[in-house]
Design a protein that fits this description.
Number of strands: 19
Radius of gyration: 21 Å
Distance between the termini: 31 Å
Largest sheet: 19 strands, mixed, barrel
Helix content: under 10%
Structural class: mainly beta
Strand content: over 45%
Length: about 280
């Protein structure tokens, strides 16, 4: 099996501490799929503080026999975007990706072309942002016996200089994963672990430190408990006393409700807490 891409090293701990906490907003997702494989999605959210509402209409067409996927979207910010993906058509393990977006109101546009290559012990990805720089980015991960080693770099073609470089190392097996990231030109560091304690219990933690800002180490720990096949609860807390709680319930096949809250335990009497919900409907 291929190793994960660079940004997915440590994904298990990141998902445990970040996903299924719909705080600060109300979200609605509706997904439907036609008989010929066209998927329609409507995504909407309302910010609890400002009351701002944003939404997106998305269509996705997949031709699995050709490895072709075309995705188009239109947002309430009037951003039009199209993505074309071609998998295993040029060669086995190769994916070609072309993404473009346009903001007609101001004439802003963006285009990015990328190539991914996956084999059993290595994944490589490169992309060229045509209008920003242009900037060439690339990342690679090699894996062996559960160990992962990866790096990422960004190069500004116009200025002929490296603008970003990051590195990561990790280890993964069926029971637990650990990872260490060095980002922002090796000036900030993030370590994380994920442990599947039992079939219904997961635990994890993440620590981060910014060397450039000489800031203290931030630590966050969390857990997930599966109540049954249709429901689970999550909880997390960090070193500043912010407590996150989440509850997800599959009401029936195709309907999922998530409730979340983030509470400042150091300021319980103040209006600094956030709550939210997410409802997903899928046919």
């Amino acid at each position: 099996m291929s190793p994960p891409f660079f940004h997915d090293i440590g994904k298990s701990s990141n998902d445990l501490l970040s996903k299924d906490y719909p705080v600060g907003s109300g979200k609605l997702e509706v997904h439907t799929t036609t008989a010929n494989g066209v998927k329609f999605s409507v995504l909407g959210s309302k910010d609890n503080k400002s009351g701002a509402i944003g939404s997106e209409l998305k269509t996705k067409y997949s031709d699995k026999s050709r490895g072709l996927t075309i995705t188009e979207s239109w947002t309430t910010s009037n951003v039009l975007s199209t993505q074309v993906e071609l998998v295993d058509s040029i060669a086995k393990g190769v994916k070609f990706d072309l993404h473009g977006s346009l903001l007609p109101a101001v004439g802003s546009k963006n285009a990015k072309a990328g190539v991914e290559y996956k084999q059993d012990n290595v994944v490589v990805r490169t992309a060229l942002d045509l209008f920003k720089g242009p900037t060439l980015t690339g990342d690679a991960v090699v894996g062996s016996d559960g160990w992962l080693l990866g790096g990422e770099v960004a190069y500004d073609v116009s200025d002929a200089k490296v603008t970003r470089y990051n590195a990561a190392i990790g280890y993964s097996n069926k029971e637990y994963t650990v990872s260490l990231h060095a980002n922002n030109q090796m000036s900030s560091f993030t370590a994380g672990y994920f442990h599947r304690v039992a079939a219904d219990i997961e635990a994890g933690a993440r620590a981060s430190w910014n060397k450039a800002a000489n800031s203290p180490v931030n630590i966050e720990v969390g857990t997930k408990y599966v109540l049954d096949k249709s429901a689970f609860v999550k909880a997390k807390i960090d070193n500043t006393g912010r407590l996150g709680l989440g509850y997800t319930q599959i009401l029936r096949p195709g309907i999922k409700l998530s409730l979340g809250g983030l509470f400042d335990t150091a300021r319980l009497n103040e209006n600094s807490h956030k709550v939210g919900l997410s409802l997903v409907l899928e046919s």
